[in-house]
Amino acid sequence: MIRAFAIAVCSCAWAGWAGAGEKSGEPPKATTLSDPTIRYVVPKKPYVVLRRGPIEAVIVDHRAVDDDVLPGHQAGYSGLAKLTHTQRKDNLFVPTYAGLNFEHIIDGTAHQDRDRLFEPRRWPMELRQIHPHIVELYQSPTPTYGVESCQRFELLDDGALQLTIEVIPHKKAFRFGYLGLFWASYIHQPENGGIHFLGWPSRLLPQNGGKPPAAPAQWIHSVSPAHGKWATHLSAEDRREFPRQEPFPLTLVFNLSDYRYAEPWYFGVSHGMALAFVFRKEDQVRFSQSPSGGGKGNPAWDFQFLIPDVQIKKRYQFVLRIVYLPYESPQQVQAAVARHLRDLNPR
Fold first, then answer.
1. Consecutive 10-residue runs of the chain (347 residues): their mean pLDDT?
2. What angle do CA 321, 158, 51 make, to 5 degrees?
3. What CATH topology corresponds to 14-344?
């Protein structure tokens, strides 16, 4: 299906998103999932190359690719297949895999069926180009969970990449009443696979809720010793509990670290470059990591959204940005992401 290619579409409507949506409690319409009037073209190739400022980003659907742009890219790994900077021409991600790859739909059921465990990887996606700097990945309702989704990748004027995610669950298929969504990024052979964020050891936090400690947040360099060990970091204010069957097969999801983060962003360093993930506080994202998710020496820098009391046919929306830049220090990265933290958290 091809629609007229709308070159004139506004490249960023974020400034108007701070207010309420069309209905009270409903997020603003942001993708072709919620706004069918948005025009797009379905490219012939399974990927689109976005270029702006110092950044080149290649967005791919679920299909395998083996050409000069994406040599040896495997099927089932969608999202950001390649990310380069004028200061580093090599791909940040494991070439066979991807970053910002929609990996899992989670409801706490302890099953071993890999088609179900990796349902977003298995189900077809449609690539939709909206603008030279905007492309979407649309996925129709998945067979087990009935989750319909659209992911909008927008390369902003400074080279930051904004990902807007919209999902609609269509089936009453969630055993414990919540919906979990998990994205993975497989980093190619960094010198150190750890991630950095501002936070506290969990022992300093009130055990029954309340405000974070008066002590200022410190830089934490978290290195997971093994896949599924001390894997997930919560916000200091995230006291939510999500039941599940044990043994739960996706070990990254619920194996919590002893740290809690203070601000909704983190970064990792690879070959002199920093990759920062910046989130909205309201989304209560959980940072996840693995030292070997992409194979030996290839860590996974991940994140997950968990929706309690999920409602069927309701549209949910999440927004994040990634910033890729030469690395000098944690303070330098903090200064670089400050604008994006403000944009995503205007209040």
1. 39 37 74 98 98 98 98 98 98 98 97 92 97 98 98 98 98 97 98 96 74 84 96 95 96 96 98 98 98 97 98 98 98 98 95
2. 90
3. Beta-galactosidase; Chain A, domain 5 (2.70.98)
- Report the pLDDT value the prediction gives residue 24, as an integer from 0 to 100: 53
- DSSP state letters, 265-291: EEEEEETTEEEEEEE-GGGT-EEEEES
pLDDT of residue 111: 85
Q: What angle do CA 298, 301, 302 make, to 5 degrees?
A: 135
Q: 179-184 and 161-169 as β-strands: parallel, antiparallel, unpaired?
A: unpaired
Q: Give the CA angle between residues 32, 35, 38 to the nearest 5°.
A: 65
pTM of the predicted model as reported, rounded to 2 decimal places = 0.92
Domain spans of the chain, in order of start = 14-344
Q: What's the pLDDT at 347?
A: 83
Which residues share a beta bridge with 268?
Answer: 275
**292 within 8 A of 143, measured Cβ to Cβ:** no
Question: How far is 33 from 165, CA to CA, in rounded Å?
Answer: 10
CB-based burial, 58-90: b 16+ in 10 Å, e otherwise: bbbbbbebeeeebeebbebbbbbbbbbbeebee
The amino acid at residue 200 is W
Q: From the CB of residue 214, how many other CB atoms can be counted at a distance below 10 Å? A: 6
Instruction: Give the Cα separation of 114 and 76 in Å (integer).
Output: 12
Note whether 242 and 234 are within 8 A (CB).
no
